[in-house]
Amino acid sequence: MGYLDLPIREIHKALGEGRVSPLELVEEAAKRIESDDCNAFEAVLLDQARQEAAKIGPFEEDNLLWGIPYVCKDNFSTKGIETTASSNILNGYVPLFDASVVKKLKERKCLLLAKTTLDELAMGGTGTTGHKGKTFNPFDPSHERMVGGSSCGSAASLAHGDAVFATGSDTGDSVRKPASFAGLVGFKPTWGRISRYGLFPFAPSLDHVGYFTHYVEDAAILFNALAGHDEMDFTSSFEMVKDYTAKLGEGIKGKKLLVIQEIIDSIDDAVNKEKFLALVKAIEKEGAEVVYAPFGLELLRSIYATYIVISCAEATSNDANLDGIKFGPYYGGASYQEVMANARTKGFSELIKRRFVIGSFALMKENQEDLFLRAQRNRAKIVEKVNSLLEGVDAILVPAAPSIAPKFNSASDRLSSEYLIADNHLALGNFSGLPSITLPYAFHDGMPLGINLMGKAFAEDELFALAKGIEELTGLAGLSVYAKKEGNL
Ligand code: GLN
Does the keyword Ligase apply (predicted)? Predict the structure, then answer.
């Protein structure tokens, strides 16, 4: 155990009492980062972090984030620091400005330790498609298991214990699914609640800034700093900001949760199913009501196709600016078209090219009605169903993934209900823009399993309260390979 394994409030106390300094926190992180063999980093920025720590100024009692070290997914623009989104097409690109999230964290005197790897341009969920290759799950020392993606480096680094929190982005599940595989709290808020300015777009109608922490309370503390309107992001909400830690003590007694029946039914592994049902029993024993309700099998099975059509269509249009001229390496050519073709041929991996083809195909005039517009209508249907299920309950509770982190070489049947439903349902939170949080609740074969809670729009304070209640029940908080815990259940 070290200071980095503690909740933010306790680190803050230790900093205030002079038991540890920001520079010592950076040194503690440096040792861990140097021994981190998960391939989690695009760039390690320890010298810069040491300099920042040395000139941080006097302790700020009312700023819980003062001197707190973090790592940042490499699709957030960082002024003066190469930012590639793990894509060769952006090699050498150094942004001239900070993403709003990075700027806010800087103003709060957080210390940036490293930029982390991702699936190229945040597309994908395996942590294998970025230009740095595979990122490994620190809970599996044999490195056979993935940590998931696309925020693979942030998840791996935090599960290794390198930092106090890690930023991520979530378009389909890219924070909340790897959080499940890595024993972490993974959170994304209501769409528009945290500014996306400076986050490389993947599919803006689905993109959310999210992050990983070791504790639910830390997620709420961070949200107090990051939530709010930003004039640089025209989709950012004007909704009043609250104190998101205010309800943390409320617990789950008297609350009502809804479990989507088909998601449980589509999980193949009987042990995982049993573990989830045991958690539900424990939640009921604590005084919460849990109801099971159907969503509609066909509608659930359509999530993935709907997601792929919409996200690829938005991606191909948003990434049209990656033309080999404005950013990244220049490969030359006789015409604009040739310059662009050279850069995109060399700069993108197979996965990206495939997704752009799907997206462009869906947007072609002759296909729009049958693909893009039909997907949009189906999205609306799905969202309507989510909202109707949420009426009269406090949140939807489901397993975040069907299993522990899969092995790299494992193949899944892409038409099975386990894949189409249990592996992809977290996109419900992106379609609807509702706040959603994953947290660990059990171990299986030495690997963590996570649950997910999805709540009502702009009611993040209530979602944190529920998550905190469940965290207390499971006793699984503060997990990393440096601070393994047994749990209560
Ligand atoms: N795994 C999903 C995909 O492949 C989600 C990615 C994300 O949320 N950025 O696109």
Answer: yes
